[in-house]
Design goal:
Layout lengths: L3 H27 L3 H6 L2 H11 L2 H10 L14 H7 L3 H11 L2 H6 L8 H6 L4 H4 L5 H18 L2 H5 L8 H8 L1 H34 L18 H28 L11 H31 L4 H34 L8 H7 L1
Helix pairs in contact: 1-4, 3-5, 5-6, 10-13, 13-14, 13-15, 14-15, 15-16
């Protein structure tokens, strides 16, 4: 097994070899006539490059022979349409910038009268969808991609019908029916599981608030350890845990009772999940702080026993918290990192 540095060296070495082969190939392509380009499948290679997101290959072949950019398959789908269908935003941006005919590209249709928004409305390939860990995030990414393409097409493309008589919006709804159902099931399962955890925390923290460590003074009813710093930590942590766990449960209940419309997966559902997860995280954390403070009060003077007990109590938290945090960051990154199909004007100026 290779070490990290050896693996990086091998990757750089392979990339260098691939670059040299590409240079040689570009030189050979530039010398070929049109008939030989078809014979050696140069046009098909451009379409495969668009399918797999190989921008370097497309760029190299473009410099060798600009006509290769106009490669088309039997369905009259060129590089640009392949970039849309296979969800390669880098290829999309590259072709969009170098061709410079926005209206013509955006209005282009295949043999089934599908424009680029129709292709964005089709269900993405499995190789793209499996990059995301669950059905809800897959649906979110499909919506983000569709909205990104929708922003750059002319208004007529949004209302155009394909050979089946469907507008892009209608096609999106039809092709994503199963994904919406799968996303709904995943969200309900997650919300149901975490609602149970939140409810248990609420029950424990509510009971702990009225059965304080050391009990109350029988004459005044005031907690005996009221003036101790550890007791104040206990009360504050208990209150924080109770409030955050209640907020978490309410967020997850909203998810359980949601109607699960398509556009809920874009922002509303992820935001509610993020809110529920982060509040549940703080409720678990503050619950453990309250538990530690209560142990410190009850076992005052026996720090060894407190440390030993806390070490064991941390085990279930170490199991739950990583799960919460991993899921939280997956949803956060997916929500914030939407596809960018056009570069900013500043970048374009630098490139020019």
């Amino acid at each position: 097994m290779l070490s990290g540095s050896e693996e990086i060296y091998e990757m750089k070495k392979n990339h260098h070899v691939a670059s040299e082969i590409l240079k040689w190939l570009s030189k050979r392509i530039s010398e070929l006539e049109e008939s030989k380009l078809h014979k050696c499948l140069a046009y098909d290679s451009m379409l495969h490059a668009a399918k797999y997101g190989l921008v370097e290959f497309i760029d190299s072949m473009r410099h060798a022979n600009p006509d290769l950019l106009w490669a088309m398959d039997k369905n009259r789908r060129g590089i640009f349409l392949h970039a849309i269908a296979y969800r390669h935003d880098k290829v999309f941006r590259f072709i969009h910038e170098i061709e410079g005919r926005k209206e013509m590209i955006a209005s282009r249709e295949d043999v089934f009268d599908n424009n680029i928004l129709h292709l964005a409305a089709e269900l993405g390939p499995s190789s793209y969808l499996t990059r995301f860990p669950n059905s809800a995030l897959q649906m979110q990414k499909e919506l983000q991609w569709f909205k990104a393409v929708e922003r750059i097409v002319p208004a007529k493309c949004k209302e155009a019908k394909n050979a089946d008589g469907k507008k892009p919006r209608e096609l999106f709804t039809k092709t994503h029916e199963e994904l919406v159902k799968d996303g709904e099931k995943w969200a309900r399962d997650i919300a149901g599981s975490f609602t149970l955890v939140g409810t248990l925390i609420i029950t424990m923290m509510f009971a702990a608030a009225f059965t304080v460590p050391g009990g109350n003074d029988q004459n005044t009813g005031i907690p005996i350890f009221l003036n101790k710093r550890a007791f104040k930590v206990f009360i504050i942590a208990d209150a924080v845990s109770l409030i955050t766990s209640s907020s978490s449960v309410l967020s997850f209940i909203w998810i359980l009772t949601s109607r699960y419309a398509e556009y809920d997966f874009l922002w509303r559902l992820p935001v509610k999940l993020l809110l529920g997860l982060i509040t549940l995280f703080f409720s678990v954390l503050s619950m453990m702080i309250a538990f530690a403070a209560a142990l410190f009060i009850m076992l005052n003077g026996n720090r060894g026993l407190v440390i030993a007990t806390m070490s064991l109590a941390v085990v279930p938290v170490l199991v739950l918290i990583p799960t919460l945090l991993i899921l939280f960051f997956e949803i956060l990154v997916s929500t914030l990192r939407s596809p960018k199909l056009l570069t900013s004007k500043k970048k374009k100026k630098k490139k020019d």
